[in-house]
Amino acid sequence: MVEMSSDEEDSRLSQYDSFSDATLREDDNETVQIGFRLAKKLGLDTVRSIDERPGPGEPDYFPFDRVAQTAKTSGQNSILEANHATVSRSIDAFERQQKIASVAELLIEVNRPDFAGGHDTYYRMLPIGRPEDQAGAELNARWYERNAKIFAKLMHVAEPGERVLVVFGAGHGYWLRHFAKEVPGFRSIDPIPFLK
Asked: H/E/C letters for each residue in 26-78?
């Protein structure tokens, strides 16, 4: 199950039907490079989309512009600047690692619970705002909502006893692991031993 959108009622990704080795040379998207490639290697017939994006009239799941504006008007830019500096250092370090590490080593890094580009990035924005305009809290609530809907989609297509591999951006890891651990009938399995 991957971070991609599908118009199919059963969340099936028709793009996977035409996947081939040539696709790997043409499309550098992580869904194709990791999700589709692994599904093909495992002999799977189907890859499913469980991503959630806002439709017409629905709220923005990541209202960062509003957070930035509120930080500016409430004198809290320093919070965003410090957060941005932390994220930038993490991205720079990851880009340096890309030149010397294998894909598996990079995936191990972003799947560690203490990954620097992880959930703490969102929590550092939580205090931005004022009692009447809690933009940081709203951003965190919307991010939770998006991930809850992603996991609910997984629940709609996963069958009892089935093993599911979820290929999503690292920022989703915290909440998706949380739901897999806490929702009855599901278990979260650490991918790091498999990656090693």
From this structure: HCCCHHHHHHHHHHHHCCCCCCEECCCCCCCCCCCCCCHHHHHHHHHHCCCHH
The alpha-helical segments, DSSP class H, found in the chain are 21-26, 30, 37-41, 64-73, 77-98, 103-111, 120-123, 135-157, 173-182, 192-195
- Six-digit token pair at 8? 């199919």
Q: Which of 17, 29, 61 is nearest to 167 (CA)?
A: 29
Q: How far apart are CA 130 and CA 134, in angstroms?
A: 6
pLDDT at 102: 94
- How many whole angstroms separate alpha carbon 191 and alpha carbon 187? 12
State which amino acid sits at residue 169: G
What is the model's pLDDT at position 5? 84
CB atoms within 10 A of CB 135: 24
Rg (C-alpha) for the chain, rounded Å, is: 18
- Per-residue pLDDT for 92 more than 80? yes
| Residue burial 12-28, b: 16+ Cβ < 10 Å; e: rest | bbebbeebeeebeeeee
